[in-house]
Design goal:
It is a single chain. The chain is mainly β. The chain has two domains: 19-80, SH3 type barrels (Roll); 84-143, SH3 Domains (SH3 type barrels), CATH 2.30.30. It is built from one helix and 14 strands, in the order αββββββββββββββ. β9 and β10 form a beta hairpin. It is elongated, with a radius of gyration of 19 Å. The termini are far apart.
Length: 145
């Protein structure tokens, strides 16, 4: 009987469609809270441009996860549709084309924020640095895709 229940639960879990991750970036610096209220405890300030994953959305508030996995509440008004990514490799190689042998345009160190221009061919993303340089990097080198 227990095996039948486990099978039923597994079947139900597999039938639920997977939700796509909802990444956003902060339009401006914003205070992060431990609960969805300005009266709750402020934890720290999240810098403008920081990419976050929106986990829960309530009236006026979003629970977001950062690249370290920390969960905090931020007022929705600070979130932008614009997407940025953050380098998680020691040094991400940004190339002129989406291929390993393409010319190296620049390297970005860990924790550098880059603007996501578009997801490229499988496993690549086109990005731009705030100084205007752009190119393609391998998706595993960044967080926020």
């Amino acid at each position: 009987m227990a095996l039948r229940r486990i099978f039923a639960l597994l079947t139900l879990a597999l039938a639920v469609p997977a939700q796509a991750l909802d990444y956003r970036s902060l339009a401006e610096a914003a205070p992060a809270y431990d609960a969805p209220s300005a009266k709750s405890k402020p934890l720290f300030v999240v810098l403008a441009g920081t990419p976050v994953e929106q986990v829960v959305a309530l009236d006026g508030w979003s629970k977001v996860r950062d690249n370290r996995g920390d969960l905090v509440w931020i007022e929705k008004k600070y979130l932008a549709e614009k997407r940025n990514v953050i380098v998680r490799a020691e040094r991400a190689q940004v190339r002129s084309a989406a291929e390993d042998k393409a010319a190296l345009v620049f390297e970005a160190e860990r924790d550098v924020v880059l603007e996501l221009m578009e997801t490229g061919p499988a496993g690549w993303a086109r990005v731009r640095h705030r100084d205007g340089q752009g190119g393609f990097l391998k998706a595993p080198q960044v967080w926020g895709l």
